[in-house]
Amino acid sequence: MAQLSIQQMSIAGIVPSYAAATDTGDLAANNGKTFLHVKNGGGSPINVTVASNYSNPPAGTAQEDIVVAVSNGSEKMIGPFNMQGYNTVDGNIEITYSAVTSVTIGAVST
Predict the structure, then answer these.
(1) The domain that contains 77 carries what CATH number?
(2) Domains contained in the chain, number
(3) What does the pLDDT average to over 76-104?
(4) What is the pTM of this model?
(5) 25, exposed or middle or buried, with CB in 10 Å at 0-12, 13-18, 19+?
């Protein structure tokens, strides 16, 4: 998995940068205010999955993977992510894709 660089939002604005989505998935540091910006330039829709890492959920709580469909030729902002439910022990979220051809991703936080 490739580690995405987190881009910090500012009142002056940012010019976001994007990386190619990797077929083995990506990681992004999550402070509870992290968003993903996924652009699908491919010819088919894809699913973006953020893995649940809830190892010990409170009674009556179900924590599931987040799966978001991104239509072909479109983009979506996804997040923020609960740190307790989605962070790995290293403080990252794990992101996978159903396809990666012409898919780019940026990670932004406040």
Answers:
(1) 2.60.120
(2) 1
(3) 96
(4) 0.92
(5) middle
Confidence of residue 57 (pLDDT cuts 50, 70, 90): low
| Residue 53: pLDDT band with limits 50, 70, 90 | confident
Output the CA–CA distances (angstroms, integers) from residue 2 to 6, 28, 54, 61, 73, in the order listed: 13, 9, 22, 30, 24
Number of Cβ within 10 Å of residue 110's Cβ equals 11
What Cα–Cα distance (Å) separates residue 33 from each residue in 15, 30, 81, 107? 18, 7, 7, 10
Q: How far apart are the first and last CA of the chain?
A: 24
54: confidence class by pLDDT, cuts 50, 70, 90: confident
Query: Containing domain of residue 74, as a range?
Result: 2-55+63-109
Residue 105: beta bridge partners? 19, 38
